[in-house]
Amino acid sequence: MAYPRDTNTCLWRMDSDSIGNAKKILQQVASLLEKSRSAEIFGEAVSYSTRPWVLLFCPAIEALETAIHEEFATRNNPKLLESIRICCVQDMYELRKVLACIHLPPGPESKNDIISWMMQEKFGQPPILMCVVDLLDILLATDRSYDQELPISERHLYVRYAQLADTLSLLVETCAYFNNYGRKTWENAFGVDIPLTPTALLVTDNGYLATRPEIDNQQELEQLGVKTRVLESLYRIIVHYLGVVI
Length: 246
Prior knowledge:
By secondary structure, the protein is of the alpha/beta class.
């Protein structure tokens, strides 16, 4: 049974082509931004503050930078790029710190961080999409003993179930926060009810999760090898929290 939630959540199972994956993510982001409409009732005076935006977490910026240059070079739409905020996180702890800070007001000396930008420039407007790129890479980077030279077909064996579950839970809860308190904060800034696209959650994998075998019962699962059993456990955790694996 999937984790009960009030937002669209899913995991994209992708291959190991980082730039190709980044392009697919950006295409999805651009499509969402172009379909979402800001609060036009206030006119151009506050169009920047009311324009929908997307929050991307990633362990490295290089692939996204290349994809942005190749994907948006001919679009001539600076507003689209302004609406994509990228936050690099080296490991699970940095990701959790940012997610925890979303629940707190920015400090008086904060100026350039994503939380201050959201509260001061966007008046608390939540993103229409929160995307975590290469989540399993972020989790594995937390384990200092992890060998990065392992073949990609074996890396999923080193993902810790508890860390995956805790992180997915926090991501889902953050989306729920955006869709409740965050919405109220933004509406209070303008004093009226404003049509707002609910925050969706997209998590991506870059080749760690192979095709899931068809397993009819627990007995059949126990007869399979360790790699397949671990893969099945990871899938069950992901489906429990996100509901959909593509």
